[in-house]
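User: My instructor asked us to take a sequence, write out its structure as tokens, and then describe one feature of it. I'm not sure where to start. Here is the sequence I was given:
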Amino acid sequence: MRRLSEERTKLVFAKLTKYIGDNLQRLIDRPDSVYCLREQKNRVYYMSEKILVLAETVSIDSLISAGTCIGKFTKTGKFLLHITALNLIVPYAQNKMWLKSTAEQQFLYGNNITKAGLGRITENVSQYEGVVIFSFNDLPLGFGVASKNTFDCKAADPMAVVCYHQADIGEYVRSENSLL
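Assistant: Let's start with the prediction itself. The structure tokens for your sequence are:
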């Protein structure tokens, strides 16, 4: 596993900042240990430095992964967050949306969120800002990008899209079906 280049580190941090804002420092310097990002085969892994020391003892050919894979770089050089980053984003998320129970299943099938399915939204969400999606039971369902700011969401048509789907916990089930 190798360190991310400065350019790639900026891309990863920019994507994470979209969801957690100024809490990025808390994600790296945690009370239990210092965490770092490493790259292997265009995938970015988040792990403690203790795990990194252990992973360095294994040869590159034998190591499949270490830590949590939070995303990957595309062939065009963009960084995409995976659903596995959800557990890292949730404690530090600044913008949140809660779905009505009728809209949860549609979101978990990979569809965008309409105004009719929106239950609550945090104040001062800007357009095109990252949001974490929750059920009314505060179960994190995934994350997306707000298509409208908070004020426009309240005044929108019931069928207007208020959040673009990025990733959801239903991806595990959908990807397993494609493997069969």
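For the description part of your assignment, you could build on this observation: The domain at 95-176 is CATH 2.30.130.10 (Archaeosine Trna-guanine Transglycosylase; Chain: A, domain 4). Try explaining in your own words what that tells you about the chain.
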